[in-house]
Amino acid sequence: MKRLMPGLSRSAIAVVAAIFGLFGGLALGAGVAQAAACEEAHDPSPASQDATGIAFHNDTPFAARVFWIGFDGFLEEYGLLQPGESLQYDTYIGHQWMVELYASEERTECLGPIVPRDRESCQARILWDDGIGIDAGYCDF
């Protein structure tokens, strides 16, 4: 058997993996609170065949996660947005999206649902000016 980390036993590798698992998320800014603020039950995204797009831009100094509300009403993670980053997704009119912003280890904010309302792609900017919010250009929010 070829060892990926020469000089380390399996138990040592397991400890390193566990430590990375515990602290790796913190480096991303998300911590262990993933989906804590947005985890309550949601109305499911409706079935739709009308394609559109949705884009998210993080204008805050904090990390944020983007979730799609599935057909069963449960959140499905689609991406992590670091400060200043953008993500764009193909979606359908009426599909619902949520953003969870990690302002600190003790404070997460749930923003949404954010819903594309027509075939023109919508742009959702996560803001941190006088407070946390969404500039949901061409999206319902």
Can you walk me through this structure?
It is a single chain. With 141 residues, this protein is mainly β. 13% of the residues lie in helices and 40% in strands. It has a five-stranded antiparallel beta sheet, with no helix packed on it. The protein has a four-stranded mixed beta sheet with strand order 4-1-7-8, with no helix packed on it. The radius of gyration is 18 Å and the shape is globular. The model is unreliable at 1-34 (pLDDT under 50).
Give me some keywords for this one.
single chain, 141 residues, mainly beta, 4-stranded mixed beta sheet, 13% helix, disordered N terminus
Q: Uncertain regions: pLDDT < 50 for 5+ in a row?
A: 1-34
Strand and helix order: HEEEEEEEEE
C-alpha Rg (nearest Å): 18 Å
Percent of residues in β-strands: 35-45%
Residues in helix, %: 10-25%
Largest sheet, order of strands side by side? 3-2-5-6-9
Largest sheet, in brief, is: 5 strands, antiparallel
